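Summary of Year 1 activities. Much of the first year was spent building the evaluation harness for sequence design. The harness presents a backbone, in tokenized form, and records the residue chosen at every position. We chose the following record to illustrate the format because it has been used consistently in internal testing since the harness was completed.
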């Protein structure tokens, strides 16, 4: 345990929940994070993950309920009131006067200024969705910034990732890198809880599968010291996860033109990061690792877990994210084709939205939940 960095009043039992565990001596030679503290890995790291999940849950609810929902409610209510006043003034049905000079308001006009139950439900759904996507945008922006910082400190390159495998295993881990990995794992575990706690979307199984596989990859790469390839992939994935929530937020508050512009940037970013750079990273695991990792890659006593089996397992999970996922639920998403590919299925769904933008229909969220589907049918 890292008792040196823990407050004296903190009981030893709680130390792993608030500090990085397994501090160790700094290596004689470091190719990155020259001034950072270094740590080994172990099961006690799960304690900090639990703390991060609790903190994320609190921050998410506070941000959503105290900041994002009130803002969305104010914006949507203001836009609705302006629309109503504009409609009333445009029809010329203003107040009419009696012979004694008193204004008389028709019941129809008064009713037009009150919101119907259907409109209130729709506004409430938009408010909740705006808050949910707002939290995602905030988190991914912070995490992407941390990922860029970590990546820039490492001697790795996106287009030529051969340095990922030099001097494998790269142990022990620098403090910022270890903290980044732990926070990423905690976030996706938190997302799994959220997916099961909130209203189910049509792609619930797809998102759940993605998050579960991501957690498996993070944990497995963490304990087998494939952390550099893990950091590279994580920072590539997070960029698109900033743009998509922002585009949805703009749509939920009625800023459709800005939504379409943001979605166009998202579409381009998705194509580059998920279908070009991600494939380059997978290629590096398959080809570069074999060529650059020494022949004695399997030596658990020194933290080396590179073997043909671990490499193929790692690649298989990455390819699974990029290539194939058989499940009936995607029939409603992908033109009634049986089982499609996680990244490719999502890309197809994105292209469908892009087509709606180009044809003037505007971007819309294919991931609506069952309540939204029913509401749309009622409209």
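For this record, the design step produced the sequence shown next.
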């Amino acid at each position: 345990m890292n008792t040196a960095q823990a407050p004296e009043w903190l009981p030893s039992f709680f130390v792993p929940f608030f500090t990085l565990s397994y501090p160790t001596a700094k290596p004689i030679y470091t190719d990155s994070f020259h001034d950072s503290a270094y740590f080994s890995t172990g099961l006690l790291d799960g304690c900090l993950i639990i703390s991060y999940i609790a903190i994320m849950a609190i921050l998410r609810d506070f941000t959503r309920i105290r900041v994002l929902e009130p803002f969305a409610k104010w914006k949507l209510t203001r836009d609705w009131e302006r629309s109503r006043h504009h409609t009333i003034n445009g029809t010329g049905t203003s107040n009419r006067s009696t012979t004694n000079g008193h204004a008389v308001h028709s019941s129809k006009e008064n009713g037009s200024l009150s919101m119907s139950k259907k409109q209130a439900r729709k506004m409430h759904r938009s408010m909740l969705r705006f808050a949910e996507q707002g939290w995602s945008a905030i988190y991914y922006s912070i995490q992407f910034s941390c990922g860029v910082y970590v990546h820039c400190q490492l001697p790795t390159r996106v287009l030529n990732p051969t340095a990922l495998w030099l001097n494998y295993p790269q142990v022990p881990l620098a403090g910022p890198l270890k903290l980044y990995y732990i926070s990423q794992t905690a976030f996706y575990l938190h997302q799994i809880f959220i997916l099961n706690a909130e209203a189910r979307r049509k792609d619930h199984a797809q998102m759940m599968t993605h998050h579960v596989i991501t957690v498996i990859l993070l944990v497995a790469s963490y304990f087998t010291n494939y952390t550099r390839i893990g950091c590279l992939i994580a920072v590539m994935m997070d960029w698109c996860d900033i743009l998509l929530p922002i585009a949805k937020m703009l749509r939920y508050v009625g800023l459709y033109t800005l939504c379409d512009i943001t979605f166009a940037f998202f579409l381009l970013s998705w194509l580059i990061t998920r279908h070009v750079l991600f494939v380059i990273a997978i290629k590096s695991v398959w080809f570069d690792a074999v060529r650059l990792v020494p022949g004695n890659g399997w030596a658990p006593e020194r933290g080396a877990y590179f073997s043909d089996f671990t490499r193929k397992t790692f690649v298989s999970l990455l390819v699974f994210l990029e290539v194939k996922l058989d499940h009936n639920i995607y029939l409603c998403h992908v033109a009634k084709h049986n089982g499609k590919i996680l990244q490719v299925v999502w890309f197809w769904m994105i292209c469908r939205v892009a087509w709606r933008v180009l044809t003037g229909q505007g971007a819309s969220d294919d991931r609506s939940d069952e309540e939204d589907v029913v509401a749309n049918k009622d409209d």
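The CA atoms of residues 243 and 265 lie 8 Å apart. Quantitative recovery figures across the full test set are reported in Table 2.
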